[in-house]
Write a sequence for this structure.
């Protein structure tokens, strides 16, 4: 890695010792009947203490698998962690025993899921479930854990938590359940909170409240946040740094301002252009042409080349890697000279893209 | 906090208003756990209530019958009118058999044994079936394969043949071996059911969420998943009780079951067949009715429980 010129997540990784989580060359494959799916194919990034980072990409690009791999929640087999290191506070999570890992989960790294309607066990009260999470990691009596459950419900803005703790999930609305999930995730003061599409299943007004809440608790507790979403609007409002994933790889990184206002990678640009805007009334919506490549049969060169409006000769031949770029913030031959290719890169500066334009 | 106020229609039961700000419209719905909800649905199921009533009578008969009708079931009467014994009019309520024993006392005493056999068989079968099914369905892989092939093996043995052979060679007419034989052969169906439930429940997001807070495998399997599978298990358990009662009657009828001194419904039936031709219908009728009524009541109960415990059921 060369001297970073822009402030990006991987660049910071080498800089300070305040790095909380460092993922190096992570590859998660799924072995299924039809062959092998490389769901995560060489992903590296890092998260500093207290940093907020967004992982963006369309469905199936590997964002959730990345999170589940970090938590070691994938069933092996069919999944296989083919290579990589997940360094969390100096320890490689991939080398921990299941017992040690169980202590990391919930205690050091907590996770919130997409479906608040099904993420709570229907047969226990919300208090039982939060208290259980607390008692797994802290030496507390049942009574103390119960009080802690009440406190954590209060902390996520639930009115009258003394009564809410005694309620069953079916008695709560979707937004309330997601608040409960957040309360449970934060009950053990984790150092990293992974939120996997936390607002996708909620309606828009509740989405805004939940995002506000996540931001708020992040501010208050100083926990690092990794927000996984396909919604660029959510990213813009909530996080500081962004990783854009496409077909199992990180294709672009940077601060929210850099990436969303002046994207480099044609894929990011396409994502931004495909957001409908008010100015385009009566026009057809912009789309990224084509579909995500068949996971069993990835293109030889750049994975995005078949859909890329700027594709030129090297794109079909050579596979761009974000680590080889200078600065390492985009995986695209428009910015990096292709090896062995006589064609020079068409260096393009970051330029503003208008949403939906 | 616009998702907070849970306004309920005026008709729903309101238990408390918050004491906090007047602006806070929070109104609490009565907090019901899954058992209370199930009971609510169960109460609406007429046939199930009939089943419960019949079973209550049978249990009453089993517990108090021999006390309030204090005849020794083996007590013989000398003044028999003929080989067919007393008819129900001459010796109420159910008449007597050829040796002068009250059929009512036989039925009441038989209720004890039949119910005992039914419930203990069920307990053994449920314990094994839930353990095997839960472990197979939760852990999957080779564990699942091994356990399910064992289930196939148990199911592939001709059931009645093995019951009769085992009853003859290991039963010896005793109660405990007979219950063990029934229990050890009645679990495979339940194991398959529990496995299927686990296969679908373990993919539920709340299981993933529990693992994500650090809950261990065994705790997830038995504390988190099992309560969600309890409905179908309870239903299936009631049917095992009914089956065990019928099985006892059947095995005893073939004289492979309990020894003649033990009074069960099956034995009472077995003894009646020699004299049916003479016209003494009350010998088989009352024990037979007891079996039929009990089994049908248990099936009604199971049906009601199926509806009440179905997680998809809505109010």
């Amino acid at each position: 890695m060369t001297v970073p010129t822009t402030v990006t997540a991987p660049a910071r990784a080498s800089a300070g010792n305040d790095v909380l989580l460092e993922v190096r060359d992570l590859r998660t494959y799924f072995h299924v009947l039809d062959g092998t799916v490389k769901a995560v194919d060489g992903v590296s990034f890092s998260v500093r203490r207290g940093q907020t980072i967004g992982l963006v990409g369309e469905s199936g690009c590997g964002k959730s698998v990345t999170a589940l791999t970090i938590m070691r929640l994938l069933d092996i087999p069919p999944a296989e962690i083919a290579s990589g290191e997940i360094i969390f506070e100096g320890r490689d999570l991939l080398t921990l025993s299941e017992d040690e890992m169980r202590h990391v989960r919930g205690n050091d790294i907590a996770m919130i899921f997409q479906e608040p309607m099904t993420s709570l066990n229907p047969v226990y009260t919300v208090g039982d479930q939060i208290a259980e999470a607390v008692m797994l990691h802290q030496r507390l009596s049942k009574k103390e854990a119960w009080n802690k459950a009440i406190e954590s419900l209060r902390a996520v803005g639930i009115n009258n938590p003394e009564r809410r703790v005694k309620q069953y999930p079916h008695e709560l609305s979707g937004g309330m359940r997601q608040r409960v999930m957040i309360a449970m995730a934060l009950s053990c003061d984790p150092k990293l909170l992974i939120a996997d599409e936390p607002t996708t299943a909620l309606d828009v007004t509740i989405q805004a409240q939940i995002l506000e809440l996540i931001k708020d608790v992040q501010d208050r507790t100083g926990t690092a946040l990794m927000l996984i979403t396909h919604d660029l609007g959510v990213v813009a409002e909530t996080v500081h740094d962004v990783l854009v994933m496409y077909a199992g790889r990180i294709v672009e990184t940077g601060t929210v301002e850099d990436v969303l206002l002046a994207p480099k990678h044609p894929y990011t640009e396409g994502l931004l252009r495909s957001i409908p805007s008010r100015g385009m009334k009566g026009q057809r919506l912009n789309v990224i042409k084509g579909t995500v490549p068949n996971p069993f049969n990835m293109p030889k060169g750049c994975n995005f080349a078949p859909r890329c409006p700027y594709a030129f000769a090297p794109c079909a031949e050579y596979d761009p890697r974000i680590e080889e770029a200078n600065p390492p913030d985009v995986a695209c031959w428009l910015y990096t000279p292709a090896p062995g290719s006589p064609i020079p890169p068409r260096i393009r500066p970051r330029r503003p893209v208008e949403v939906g334009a | 906090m616009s998702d907070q106020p849970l306004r309920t229609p005026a008709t729903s039961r309101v238990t408390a208003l918050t004491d906090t700000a007047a602006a806070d419209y929070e109104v609490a719905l009565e907090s019901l756990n899954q058992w209370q909800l199930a009971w609510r649905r169960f109460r609406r199921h007429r046939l199930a209530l009939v089943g419960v009533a019949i079973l209550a009578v049978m249990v009453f008969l089993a517990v108090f019958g021999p006390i309030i009708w204090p005849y020794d079931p083996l007590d013989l009467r000398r003044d028999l009118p003929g080989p067919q014994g007393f008819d129900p009019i001459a010796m109420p309520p159910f008449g007597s058999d050829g040796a002068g024993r009250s059929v009512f006392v036989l039925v009441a005493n038989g209720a004890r044994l039949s119910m005992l056999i039914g419930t203990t068989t069920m307990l053994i079968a449920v314990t094994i079936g839930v353990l095997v099914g839960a472990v197979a369905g939760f852990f999957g892989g080779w564990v699942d394969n091994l356990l399910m092939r064992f289930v196939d093996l148990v199911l592939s043995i001709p059931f009645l043949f093995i019951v009769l052979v085992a009853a003859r060679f290991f039963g010896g007419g005793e109660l405990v071996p007979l219950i063990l034989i029934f229990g050890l052969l009645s679990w495979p169906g339940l194991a398959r059911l529990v496995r299927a439930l686990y296969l679908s429940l373990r993919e539920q997001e709340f299981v993933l969420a529990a693992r994500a807070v650090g809950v261990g495998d065994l705790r997830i399997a038995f504390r988190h998943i099992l309560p969600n599978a309890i409905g179908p298990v309870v239903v299936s358990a009631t049917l095992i009780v009914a089956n065990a009662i019928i099985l006892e009657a059947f095995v005893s009828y073939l004289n492979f079951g309990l020894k003649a001194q033990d009074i069960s419904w099956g034995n009472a039936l077995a003894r009646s067949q020699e004299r049916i031709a003479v016209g003494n219908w009350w010998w088989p009728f009352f024990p037979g009715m007891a079996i039929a009524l009990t089994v049908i009541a248990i099936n009604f109960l199971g049906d009601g429980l199926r509806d009440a415990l179905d997680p998809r059921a809505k109010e």
Summary: Residues 273 and 356 of chain A are 4 Å apart (CA to CA).
